Amino acid sequence: MAALGAITGPDLWLPILGGALLPDIPIFIFYAWTKGVEKIPDRTIWQEAYYRPFWQAAVAVGHSIPLAGAIAITGQIIGEPVLIWLGISAILHSLEDLPVHNHDAHRHFFPISNYRFISPFSYWDPRHYGRWVSLAEWGLVLIASAVLWSNMSSWAGRLVLILINSSYGFAIFYSRNLWRNCTESNCSQPQSSESNSSVEVGKSKASSKV
């Protein structure tokens, strides 16, 4: 948001912020539904419910680079800057997700492909440097927020920045607490069937080359 905001100016910060949040909206809805309506425990939410086909499809749509690109292209065709920067911001969100998701990787090229990039790093899982990645990510958010804060005259916008930074801090605390409870309960590593199949295909290709 800070990078795009420096290019466009404050008039288009709202669609840029919307694009930054857009990919995760299905996840927010998923958590609200499973926690608030189905009353599922947090560990089960992320170990099992998250990998239901319906929710995986919804998350894939939200994190789809081709679909976000289609929004930006549509905006370019009809001359609507709001759609252009909404789509570009959503694409940047997905590109930033690519290197920090391991077994929970998204299908960023849906519906063209179901491919998932399994990164060696995770933004939350300590088995994949999650403690350090989460702190580095939060640090970048703080730096970007400081840049935006100095250029922002609206207190509403500044309130949004405070909420974003607070949510990052809460997310770090939440994920670490969830992982600690999961470890104490001897949880297994969650993986969707599609993620497993992608890994197996990759292994078979590598072995065939050998």
Task: Describe this entry's structure for a reader.
By secondary structure, the protein is mainly α. It has one domain. The chain has 10 helices and no strands. It has helices at 2-8, 13-21, 25-37, 42-47, 53-62, 65-78, 81-97, 130-150, 155-184, 193-209. It is globular. Residues 191-210 have low confidence and may be disordered.
| Radius of gyration over C-alpha positions, nearest whole angstrom | 18 Å
The proportion of residues in beta strands is under 5%
What gap, in angstroms, lies between the N and C termini? 44 Å
The number of helices is 10
Largest sheet properties: none
- What's the number of structural domains? 1
Quick overview:
With 210 residues, the protein is mainly alpha-helical. It has helices at 2-8, 13-21, 25-37, 42-47, 53-62, 65-78, 81-97, 130-150, 155-184, 193-209. The chain has one domain.
Produce the secondary structure layout.
Blueprint: H1 2-8, H2 13-21, H3 25-37, H4 42-47, H5 53-62, H6 65-78, H7 81-97, H8 130-150, H9 155-184, H10 193-209
Helix pairs in contact: 2-7, 3-5, 6-7, 8-9
Q: What are the defining features of this structure?
A:
single chain; 210 residues
